[in-house]
Amino acid sequence: MRILNIEASYFTRVFRKLGHDVLSIGPGRDCDVVLDAPLTARNLFELLRTRDFWPDLALWADGCRPPSVLGLELLPCVTIGYSIDQYCNPWHVPWSISFDHMFLAQKDYVPLFEQAGLPRRAEWLPLFFDPSGVGDGGVERDIPVSFVGTVTGSINRRRKDFLDAVRVGVPVVVRAGNYYPIYGRSQIVLNQSAVGEANFRIFEGAGCGALVVTESIANGFDELFRAGEEIAVYERGNVQDAVRVCRELLADPDRLRRMAEAGRRRVLRDHTTVARAKRILDVASALGRTRSWDWRGKQADRVARELGKMCVFLGLDQELPLPRDMARGFTRMGLARLG
């Protein structure tokens, strides 16, 4: 299968390992075609022509940023979207009309995308762990508790206060950037979410062999892990409960180790990039047999209206880090499509 991967490169290595031909486009430095500005529909087709690369599948993998490639709805092939942070990006809903199948990382948001009259499914596909960059272990777990991630930002304004309060009761190493070196040395990975989402930190911490202590969350969490056996849970927003759980586990190293090992086994069995990539490929193969893309041409007016809404959302969202001229451009484009 020839796969056009747009934006995040979560699965490109796996796709290639499984024998598929992949062209990746996006702002990331690991992409085959690195973009420093959004690619218009016309330029997208010119790029495919010059590369002589006409895909069987176009996968948009959410990179947690505004879209960097436009015109996906025009491609005469299977198109699939995978939304990671739909909980803070309402533009993902109208954007999803570009795709024949929409995967959502957070289960509770599936009904929001199940719009009447759209001949594409919205399906829960949880987040995952990439084991390719993790060593075989053997490193001393000399960090009792760690947290790696963004501490301040517009999405989660409670996080810094929460972490500062927890650190009064139990030592927590807080870092940003690459999580592998920290989680590989951690006994416990502390998780706190923005809106109760099952975020990457849960899968990454457990995949690296640490015991994840997470707040109680929804979004299908109970279907992903067994609380008390593979992962530990504290009451959401309750600093004292988080401290209590961490202290009790650190005081019982055998139990901590057993739970951490069970969590790692679960992640490596069910929640890897390979598992998610195979599900995407299965859906793409089934859609390809039915020429799923035909409906987009037959409902071109509706597709244009929905994408107009998306552009307006992007242009008017004050929380998005868009340059002013780009925001105005999205707004003008959206209003033109809406007529």
CATH topology of the largest domain: Rossmann fold
How would you describe the shape?
Answer: globular
Uncertain stretches of 5 or more adjacent residues: none
Q: Give the overall average pLDDT.
A: 93
Tally of structural domains: 2
Q: Largest beta sheet, briefly? A: 7 strands, parallel
The rounded distance between the terminal residues' Cα atoms is: 38 Å
Oligomer description: single chain
Q: How large is the radius of gyration? A: 21 Å
| Topology order in helix (H) and strand (E) letters | EHEEHEEHEHEEHEHEHEHEHHHHHH
Q: Helix count, per DSSP?
A: 14
Number of strands: 12
What's the CATH C level of the largest domain? Alpha Beta
Strands ordered across the widest β-sheet: 3-2-1-4-5-6-7
* Structural class determined from secondary elements: alpha/beta
Q: How much of the residues is beta strand, in percent?
A: 15-25%
Q: What fraction, in percent, of the residue positions are helical?
A: 40-55%
Q: Any idea what the CATH architecture of the largest domain is?
A: 3-Layer(aba) Sandwich
